[in-house]
């Protein structure tokens, strides 16, 4: 297989399927051979990332399994690696140190897309797992480029947690009304754009009725970055992550 892209998936499964569908749907291709070659590890048994970040003394550390996946993808000839899980980027520096294969930094790519395509944005809202929020993964990157971040209050984070864990990961019906309410509240708190910083939220966005809230989907940014780094073109009509909805 020539120049395959390595993907560490399964974090979670529905989000990975959404990511892979995005890769296929958004690649400007007219035949099978125009698409990317991909090595996918759908590694669903990797321990929960948020659980470890919040309670490292009690939860199992996912890093050893992630490192093993990175090394196997390197040995298999991956040209670069994408990890469609925002929270897993807590371990980014340790993972990159274990391989010479470049790993796409999903969070930096997303913040970069905001700077390029939302030049008037000042305050950026963050919707993500508690692990991502508590680890300040997005806050640090936003501050680095001169943007103010806004993380939801605890009551709203509980709603976001329910959307991620109780609904998408648990396989229950999605409460799109609650999703839209959270977006409306973030806008009312002065957020010029809201990051969907969890791939389960990306799954919800993909399946939700159209709305007019200013969001940037981190998974969609990763999809487009992966296509472009793989030497393919993104369909112009679906380059939505590079502008607000």
The tally of structural domains comes to: 2
Share of residues in helices: 40-55%
How many strand elements? 7
Uncertain runs are 239-245
Say what the CATH topology of the largest domain is. Rossmann fold
How many whole angstroms does the radius of gyration measure? 17 Å
Major sheet: size, sense and barrel closure?
A: 4 strands, parallel
Q: Order of helices and strands, N to C?
A: EHEHHEHHEHHEHHEHEH
- Class inferred from helices and paired strands: alpha/beta
Family: Belongs to the aspartate/glutamate racemases family.
GO molecular function: aspartate racemase activity
Keywords: Isomerase
Protein name: Aspartate racemase
